[in-house]
Amino acid sequence: MKIKVVYQSFSGHTKRIARTLASALKVEAQNFKKAPSEDSELLFLGGGLYAGSLDKKFANYLQNLSTKHQKVILFSSSASGQRPSKLIKEILINKGYSVDDQELFVKGRFLFLSITHPNKADLQSVKDFALNYVGQD
Ligand SMILES: Cc1cc2nc3c(=O)[nH]c(=O)nc-3n(C[C@H](O)[C@H](O)[C@H](O)COP(=O)(O)O)c2cc1C
Asked: Is a pLDDT exceeding 50 seen at residue 136?
C-alpha cells in the first residue's frame, strides 16, 4: 500500500508527531514545502494551529492539492485543544477528497499553555493510532 505522511510545523511539535507516525508506518515524514507531488492510497496529513488559523502557506498548499489519494487521514496539534483538523477538513472536502472520520489530535505547547506536551504518552498514542489504522484494512 502506498502511504504518505505530509506535515506542516512551525516550532517542531507536529514534525515530531509526523515522524513518529511515519516511523510506525515505515515511511518518511515529508514537510509539505518539500513533499514531492505524487498520488497515494493513504495520505496522513497534518498541521498546527496559529492564532486560531492554519499556517497561510499550508492552507495555500491544501487549496492547490491536485494529487489523487484514496483516503486522507488527518492529524493535528494545538496548545488549547482546538483542532486545526477542522479547518484542513473543510478545505479538502470542498475539493472532493475523501477524509476519514478517524483523526489524530495531539496537544502541543505554546508559551505557558500545555507545557508538558507533546510527551511520551502522547507519542505512544500516535504509534497506536498508526498501527491500529493500517491494521484495520
Ligand atoms: C505563533 C504561534 C501561534 C500559536 N497560536 C495558537 C493558537 O491560537 N491556539 C492554540 O491552541 N495553539 C496555538 N499555538 C500552539 C501550536 O498550535 C502548537 O504548538 C502545536 O503543537 C503546533 O506546533 P508546531 O508548530 O510546533 O508543530 C501557536 C504556536 C505558535 C508558535
From this structure: no
pLDDT in tens, 19-56: 999 999 999 999 999 999 999 999 999 999 999 999 99
Residue 84 alpha carbon to ligand 1 centre in Å: 10
Cis omega (within 30 of 0) on the bond before 118? yes
Distance in Å, CA 55 to ligand 1 centroid: 10
CATH of domain 3-136: 3.40.50.360
Give, for 122, the enclosing helix (H) or strand (E). Answer: helix 120-136
DSSP-assigned letter for residue 112? T
CA distances from 33 to 29, 58, 120 (A): 12, 8, 27
CA angle (23, 136, 4) in 5-degree steps: 40
C-beta 108 within 6 A of ligand 1: yes
CA distance 84 to 97: 17
Amino acid residing at 123: L
CA distance 125 to 58: 25
